[in-house]
Amino acid sequence: MKKNYKILTLKILAPFIAIFLAAFFSSFVILTINKSPLEVFYTMFKFSFRRLDSIAIILYNSTPLIFSGLAVAIAFRMGLFNIGVEGQYLIGTFLAAFVGFSLEGLPPFIHIPLLILSGMLGGMIWAYLPIYLKIRKGVHEVISTIMLNYIAYSLIHYLISEIFIDRSQKLLIRTPKLAPSALMPKLHGVLALFGIELPKHVYLNWFFVIAVLLAIAIYYIVYYTPFGFELRAVGQNPEASRTAGIDKEKVFYKGFLLSGAIAGLVGLSDLMSYFGYMDLDFPRGYGFDGIAVALIGQNDPFGIILASILFGFLRRGAEGIQTLLNVPMDTIVILQALMIITIVIINKIVGDYIKRLEKKGAR
Amino acid sequence: MEKAIVLKNITKRFPGIVANDNINLEINKGEIHAIVGENGAGKSTLMKILAGLYQPDEGEIYVFGKKEKINSPNRAIELGIGMVHQHFMLVGRFSVLENIILGSEKKKGITIDWENARQVIKELCDLYNFSVDIDAKVEDISVGMAQRVEILKVLYRGADILVFDEPTATLAPQEVKELFVNLRKLKEEGKTIIFISHKLDEVLEIADRVTVLRRGKVIGTVFANETTKEELARMMVGKPVLLKLDKEEVKKGDIILTVENLYLRSESGQILLEGINFNIRSGEIYGIAGVEGNGQRELAEAIMGLRAISEGEIKLVGESIKNLSIRERRSKGIAFIPEDRHKQGLVLPMKVWENVILGLHRKREFIRYPFLNVEKIQKFARGIVDKYNVMLSSINQPVEGLSGGNQQKVILGRELSQDPILVIAAQPTRGLDIGASEFVYTRLLSLREQGKAILLISADLDEVLSLSDRIGVMYKGKIVAEFKPEETTLEQIGLYMLGVYTDKDGETA
Amino acid sequence: MDFIVELIASSLRMTVPILLTGIGAVYTERAGVVNIGLEGMMIVGSFWGALGSFYFGPYVGFLMGMSAGMALALIHAVASVTFRVNQIVSGVALNILAFGSSRFLSQVFFKMATTSPHVKGLRPVKIPVLGDTSPIIVLAFILVPFTAFILEKTVFGLRLKSVGENPLAADTLGVNVFKFKYAGVLLSGLLAGLAGTYLSLEHTGMYVEGMTQGKGFIALAAMIFGNWTPYGTMWASLLFGFAESLSFRVVESNVIPYQFIKMIPYLLTLAVLAGVVRKSTPPAADGIPYEREMH
After folding, report:
1. What is the pTM of this model?
2. For range B484-493, the mean pLDDT
3. Is the confidence at residue A362, as pLDDT, over 50?
4. Cα gap C94→C89, rounded to integer Å
């Protein structure tokens, strides 16, 4: 089965070629500010991998992206675009924060799962509307989710600055602090058992483990359950699926709500470890990063973990080039956007080639 | 005699297949030259080479004695070669006029010169006795008229050589006659016509000479008046073929499917099915004949539950199924072989074993909660592959890599695995070669012997006539007549298909 | 009376960016290419327009803004027409690229990530009743009948529409499908770039990050509401412009929290689409990449 190895090699190689090309094109942007692209990329590596705690920071950075990538990928599998992960996680994060600061005195093993469930619920609520509008009214989910992102921004702004503002703060606009029982423990303790000592300023926490476990669960759901089977069948040929008796709308509802529930987890790692409250500057853009992560990870859960770590590294490296070389951090935003474009083009080329190879085998 | 087109050693390869293998062909000016062959013999590849859509890998093309390279559709048009495609290449939302001039618009100032175009088209219509409504939207006109629009398109471009790809595939017998009148008129005016078909009767009727292709190669060119149908068939398939099917006498059983007074309207309120009544007994094949687009597809989809009916009743063994979901209807024992297997029958990028359980994936036997029982499913898939002799390299292969016939076998295997009581087969041999078609015929006949009820919908009248126990003819969403095959003729059915007769006594409408 | 004139004038000002981009959307979608990246093309238009005007004056500003929109559109065309990748994915990527590159370059040229200094616009023209008006507003409304004329009366328009309806048919008639799809996409980039430049030079007088506020997406909705026609798009854009301008008056009245007022255009977009989509008819081959050699 030489052909199968060839196909596998191509599939694995494709993201690397895309990353390389994206780096190549973004070099021109770096050149416009009279910096050497090689030096920039070298600095990113050096800054990121010079110490162990830096690697832990990369994993911390990658945590929300794994959730976000999985959420986007689930929708992609059905042939839908969840551009609304952005809004879904903001709503989810807020709901979790609300449960975090309004309930007190609960033991952590109840309080933390409660926050997680609220986050998922928030994401699901915000995912329900676009899928309802799509199925009942025929509104394309891309436009509706984008609109709901803007609405979520305003809504969160209102909730934080008008309703749930922490009155004890004089100058800062933010929610009250989460109860200590609502904070997610860091991984420091466990890692210490293996002789890995992390400093205090690293926030790598159990959400990273949850994200990896979730990715494994999603893998089995997508490939080995009847629901995952339906998800893929509907995504690749809705008409044939319907003819076979699969209720497409039910699959859409279930799949999109699942996507929303996962999206609701995106902001929790930041909320429940680093911040401990939600404010107007709560990180944005994870939803869009998730699209890039899902594409580079080829919608495969394990690919998504790797792509998230790559992006976590880029983020860490961006801090390095900003501090050491005075190159704007936004370089990596450009790099990520270019990666999306190069990966889809290369996937297309490789995909067409593989199709031809497989056709050859049929005769 | 002057040669319109000469092909020398034309070879065209696609990944894994040689579509045209060293083709040599001469087309005389002013003749009607038929090119026949089975599906996959390389006819349409050859045609696309002439149209400038494909480039040959090897060989030379001479047009009116000059060596030419047809490297674009534009070049083909410049050389006077015009295509009349099987699937009409028309823009539905454009008017007939816009469709005809598209790509060859004449300008007046900066705008299109509509008046001139109108004039030229009118003259063409008069010359060739075509009747078309220039301002009608193409999506509203009949198949026959759409084909005349296609012909006008190439004439408007000044084509001298007209290539017709399976022009009669979607036409009713009377429309075919009209087309032949048009073709003869074109020939009289000095046009050269290449007529691609696999219907031997028609070829023998219209063509001067016939070239037979088989597996990408030219088998031979003969004069139409010096050959016979049997000889052409032998040349096409390489061995004598059985044109008659053994149909055993089967005792009819209870009524399985009853359709009563069925109405179906589109979302915009247009009537698609109007008062359909028929039933099918066990051990019976009920054939539906009709020009495509007269409600056959909608009828199958209504029975399957893919479309909600507006009025009427559908019963399976006496029990109403009209409010059941598709899945529930399937579990009551309806199997469906859809018309478009790529769109409705298979999920092409998924593996063969996955396609084999599409729709059956929630059956208890295939589940090991909460997962799919992959081992058991693969065993089941292998069973089907063996039983139906599906040619593949692995059941893990995406089903899109299989040939059309093998894909159809996968669908048959899946649909018949659950021991259905009613089988709806829509265009079950479309696009299949003779071997695969025969396989489908014998399967359908053996289902009939097993006492299944079968609804056969087909645009191929021969197929309907030779398989069915009863035939309903559909016209404009109605079953306008019902026959036993031994009591009718092709011509009679044709008159009903076209709405010339509208009731069983043969009254003219 | 003054109140009404001012309301009309401000509605028109709000309408123009949506209208220009919406007309652009008509060109690209009638050619069969969905362009979610219009938002990004507006963003680069607003940035490069400001940059050009800052250094060389408003005329160069407009030229650079439109060119930037077109450059982004060119990437979209290469990806989605030549390489036939998913048009929505490509569009989303371009939006991110526009955001990132504008932020990056803003730091380089303006030394601030999010705003530019004040930049000059075009000299206003006098219009009866409305008074001083940006020439771009006039241009936007002239573009409506002009586009209708192009689509209905010219060879270019007929061919552009044909590649969006049935590219295979067009191809067999010798219409260069790729050329017309490129033309549609590039025109949409040009117009979105113009709309973006209008925002920074004419509307605000400076570049501000995020100043497009999703207007590129709203323009798409306006085009759908307008059933893919220039006049329909104009009426829909006027509706959005009017709603936005009205919402500002409501903010001043202080009855409703301003965060809710900000939601109005987006809620209106959702409502409009929910009410209208089922009745609208996109070009038959809209969003489907065209590939010639199939076997």
Report:
1. 0.90
2. 86
3. no
4. 9
Q: What is the pLDDT of residue B505?
A: 56
- Residue A311 pLDDT: 95
- The per-residue pLDDT for A273 is 95
Helix (H) or strand (E) holding A155: helix A141-158
Residue B111 pLDDT greater than 80, yes or no: yes
Query: Are both A356 and A256 inside the same structural domain?
Result: no
Q: Name the superfamily (CATH) of residues B254-333+421-428+449-509.
A: P-loop containing nucleotide triphosphate hydrolases (3.40.50.300)
pLDDT in tens, C164-204: 999 999 988 889 999 999 999 999 999 999 999 999 999 99
Task: Clarify whether residues A126 and A161 are in a common domain.
Answer: yes
On whether the CB atoms of residues B411 and A268 are closer than 8 A, the answer is no
When pLDDT is cut at 50, 70 and 90, the band that residue A361 belongs to is low
Q: Are A24 and A131 within one domain?
A: no
List all residues 6 or more positions away from B473 whose beta carbon is below 8 Å from its beta carbon.
Answer: B288, B289, B290, B479, B480, B481, B482, B483, B493, B496, B497
Q: Which residue of A has its CA nearest to B349?
A: A236
Predicted pLDDT of residue B509: 42
| Token pair in block for residue B172 | 């009713």
Break chain C into its structural domains and give their ranges: 2-212
Say if residues C143 and C149 touch (Cβ distance below 8 Å): no
Q: What is the CATH number of the domain that holds A173?
A: 1.10.3470
Total domain count for chain A? Answer: 2
Chain A contact partners (≥3 CB pairs within 8 A) = B, C
Q: Cα distance from C132 to chain A (closest Cα, Å)?
A: 33
- Cβ atoms C95, C42 nearer than 8 A: no
- Check whether residue A340 and residue A312 sit in a common domain: no
- Choose from C166, C173, C229 for mutation: most chain B CBs within 10 A: C173
Sorted by sequence, the CB contacts under 8 Å of residue B93 that are 6+ apart come out as: B137, B138, B139, C165, C284
Alpha carbons B280 and B96: distance in angstroms, whole number: 42
Residue C107 to residue A328, Cβ atoms within 8 A:
yes
Q: Distance between CA atoms of B485 and B501, rounded to whole angstroms?
A: 18
CA of C3 vs chain A CAs: smallest distance (Å): 28
B85·C172 Cβ contact <8 A: yes
Give B402's pLDDT tier (boundaries 50, 70, 90). confident
Task: For an interface test with B, give the residue of A77, A243, A247, A248 to mutate (most B CBs within 10 A).
Answer: A243
Q: For C257, name the nearest residue in chain A, comparing CA atoms only.
A: A158
CATH of B3-237, one of 3.40.50.300, 3.20.20.70, 3.40.50.2000, 3.40.50.720: 3.40.50.300
Q: Is the pLDDT of residue B239 over 70?
A: no
> Looking at residues A210-230, what average pLDDT do you find?
97
What does pLDDT average to over chain C?
Answer: 93
- A254 lies in the same domain as A279: yes
pLDDT computed for residue C295 by the predictor? 39
Task: Give the pLDDT confidence of C24-72 residue by residue, as tens digits.
Answer: 999 999 999 999 999 999 999 999 999 999 999 999 999 999 999 999 9
Asked whether the predicted pLDDT for residue B508 surpasses 70, the reply is no
Q: Is A188 inside a domain boundary?
A: yes
Pair A296, A353 in one domain: no
Per the structure, the complete domain to which residue A22 belongs is given by 1-33+332-363
* A44-75: pLDDT as tens digits: 999 998 888 899 999 999 999 999 999 999 99
The single-letter code of the amino acid at C247 is S
Neighbours of chain C (3+ CB pairs under 8 A): A, B
Residues of chain B with CATH 3.40.50.300: 3-237, 254-333+421-428+449-509
Nearest-angstrom CA–CA distance, C195 and C53: 15
Give yes or no for a contact between A290 and A85, defined as CB atoms under 8 angstroms apart: yes
**Cβ count within 10 A of residue B110:** 11
